[in-house]
Design a protein that fits this description.
Layout (H helix, E strand, L loop, with lengths): L6 H13 L5 H6 L18 H17 L7 H8 L7 E5 L7 H4 L7 E5 L7 H12 L5 E7 L3 H11 L8 H7 L1 H6 L7 H20 L1 H8 L4 E7 L6 E4 L1
Helix pairs in contact: 7-8, 10-11
Bound molecules: zinc ion.
């Protein structure tokens, strides 16, 4: 993770933490002027949750239709050297066929990515997302699954066939068993249903296991949504 490096940005980060922490309300109140004193590296990223979601899905539409914007990485690097204010954080699978920054036609500093096979909640991933929300002010989290996910397929095999996997892969496959079991008797394709269920369960877990995220949602500062990326079309369908 790249912290805002200066003492100024640290103060701004502190204020953002304070703003969504009930216990720190008094501290935030003592330094209100600083909250507005520091310009965001990308003012266009200072969005409310609904604006962020609208922008995110518009970017996916451009990507799916092959009309993505041209990005000037040289000037963006310079702009962002002192800080970041991404408008979305994405918990996605590690699958090489998905690149969240491409899939939503985002530039540097727009999208905070946490990736792990099967896009599920780990302590470190959750901490990363809390950082994005509390310190960087990100108003939107998207949990992004995808069709033909090998990690979820391993979970399905672990449930249906009692399959065994080498190394740490077994533990990964076991992680998805509760989601697979929920849709075991549901109509339709089991893998497809399990992928969607895992996304839904992950969204719920983010809210249930992080009071920081739950408080931000309650305060209207954060929205947490789920979606499934279609490998062939590039379209993301929001679910749940
Ligand atoms: Zn996957």
């Amino acid at each position: 993770m790249c912290d805002r490096p200066s003492h100024i940005n640290e103060r701004r980060s502190f204020l953002r933490l304070a703003a969504i922490s009930a216990g720190a309300t008094m501290l935030a109140g003592t330094l209100p002027s600083l909250a507005h004193a520091m310009p965001s590296p990308k003012p266009a990223n200072d969005l409310n949750p609904q604006q962020a979601l609208t922008r995110l899905m518009a970017g996916n539409q451009r990507y799916a239709e092959g009309v993505t914007k041209r990005h000037d990485f040289m000037s963006e690097r310079e702009l962002l050297a002192g800080g970041q204010n991404p408008f979305v954080a994405i918990l996605s699978c590690a699958d090489s066929r998905i690149a969240p920054e491409y899939a939503f036609d985002t530039a540097l500093g727009d999208l905070f990515a946490v990736r792990v096979a099967g896009n599920f909640v780990t302590d470190e991933g959750l901490a990363s997302l809390e950082y994005a929300v509390a310190v960087l002010g990100t108003p939107l989290i998207l949990v992004l699954g995808h069709d033909s996910c090998g990690a979820i397929a391993a979970g399905v095999k672990a449930v249906k066939d009692n399959a065994r996997f080498p190394g740490k892969i077994q533990g990964l496959a076991d992680t998805f068993k509760p989601s697979v079991n929920k849709v075991l008797k549901a109509p339709g394709d089991l893998l497809e249903n399990a992928i969607a269920q895992n996304v839904t369960d992950t969204v719920m877990r983010l809210k249930a296991e992080s009071s920081l995220l739950a408080d931000a949602v309650s305060a209207g500062k954060l929205q947490i949504v789920g979606g499934v990326y279609k490998l062939r079309s590039g379209n993301v369908k929001l679910i749940g």
